[in-house]
């Protein structure tokens, strides 16, 4: 059995992964998804969110994306393809982010005086691993960076003053800067992954460093980057039992937007 990867999107990072899902005697599939993805978002922007929350952060009900007689006209720039369901009708009046708004999932409201507003969708928390590339969903206790430096507490007042940034609680998978302590996190949605501030001798301000956080799923992955010329062929699958699934992710880092 052969599977050939066809290189046709050179402007994207192409991540091809093979996942082996083994069923137990009850027929239940074991995988690393320990969180109900209908109840949280994986990234700060939440364009992948598929949950059923249908009210804004201010508890105002959302208008249907497919309303026949809407209170607020839906932008003509928004189409079915902008939704994870690939359908405005199926998306109903749920909070979504079809425009890539830096606020995250939002909706048109049923309040005549308020056209649209953001929704309070919590970040997923996958504990000691990450499911997404940026890893905003990481909620583990790693506090050492790739250089071996120890992280500084997110809640330190002088850190915020020095950097001029104030990270809101909602940008943490812990839902709190204080609870995030000095653990590696990604409150900015940085494509480099979870990070933290460290204090280095000789520097006036704290420095930002990345952390080495593993993915939750045990996958064998092939990664193709821009202008890649080598394209391997998979010739053998080692799965004695169970199901074999292929997972493909197309990721363009240039599309990622920071929350600040």
From TrEMBL:
- Which residue spans traverse the membrane? 6-22
Q: Which residues form a coiled coil?
A: none
Q: Does the keyword Transmembrane apply?
A: yes
Q: Which residues form the signal peptide?
A: none
Keyword list, A-Z: Disulfide bond, Kringle, Membrane, Transmembrane, Transmembrane helix
Name of this chain's protein: Kringle domain-containing protein
UniProt xrefs under Pfam families: Kringle
**What is the organism lineage in this UniProt record?**
Eukaryota, Metazoa, Ecdysozoa, Arthropoda, Hexapoda
Q: Where does the record place the Kringle domain?
A: 46-124, 131-216
Q: Does the keyword Transcription apply?
A: no
